[in-house]
Amino acid sequence: LKPVLKRLLKSQHFFDDLNIGAQIKSPAETVIGMLKHLKYPDRWARNIMSTLGLELFNPPNVAGWKGYRSWISTKTLPTTIYYIKEIINNNTNTELADWALSIEASGDVHILTERFVELFLARPVSEERFKKFKNTFLGGAPDYEWYEIIKNKEQAGQRVRGFLFEIIKAPEYFLF
Questions:
Q1: What residues contact 147, with CB distance under 8 A and at least 6 apart?
Q2: 3-class secondary structure for 48-67?
Q3: In the prediction, which pLDDT does 175 show?
Q4: Cβ 81 vs Cβ 169: under 8 Å
Q5: 3-state secondary structure of 109
């Protein structure tokens, strides 16, 4: 087994860009991924995952949950988005602003947008989509206004909330 793993992990195929963002996250991975950054009661999070069909440490059988495309359906995707929005809305604007401001170079809206896109999306986005995400932070204002926007934590938190709502609608958000 060791030679096989060694060869696999050293192969160019293993590091090919086409293999990045090719796996669908489970609802649990999606929820926990957001919970790593935002405040939300642990008991409620477990209830969310159970509602989404993933009671942690209690798989349906020894094979576990089905996974892959079964995570994305007309029922599971809107329900997952609903609960992710609930997690986001559980945080005040001040908490969201403080979280965003804790990210290095958050005073530069371009860098902050880059960091958030890298943090939440599995694949790079087009320049057009990047501008759309950055504009969500700016609310139509020019880049240099960001310095004034972040001084008002209530306003900055609203912008972060809007940005997160845009991110969770992106298909790449649900991929590894």
A1: 107
A2: HHHHCCCCCCCCCCCCCCCC
A3: 85
A4: yes
A5: helix
Higher pLDDT, 93 or 24: 93
Inter-CA distances, 45 with 13, 31, 39, 142, Å: 36, 8, 10, 38
The residue among 36, 27, 25 whose CA lies nearest residue 79 is 27
Q: How far apart are CA 162 and CA 85, in angstroms?
A: 10
Distance from C-alpha of 165 to C-alpha of 97, rounded to nearest angstrom: 15
How many other C-beta atoms are found inside a 10 Å radius of the C-beta of residue 61? 6
- 110 or 74, greater pLDDT: 110
Q: Angle CA(146)–CA(149)–CA(154) in degrees, nearest 5?
A: 145
Largest distance between two CA atoms of the chain: 57
**pLDDT top residue among 142 and 19:** 142
Nearest-5° Cα angle at 77, 71 to 79: 115
Instruction: Give percent of the chain with pLDDT exceeding 70.
Output: 96
Residue type at position 65: W
Contact 162, 89 (CB under 8 A): no
The two tokens of residue 129 are: 């989509």
**The pTM is what?**
0.83
Lowest mean pLDDT across 23-27, 32-36, 104-108, 169-173 = 23-27
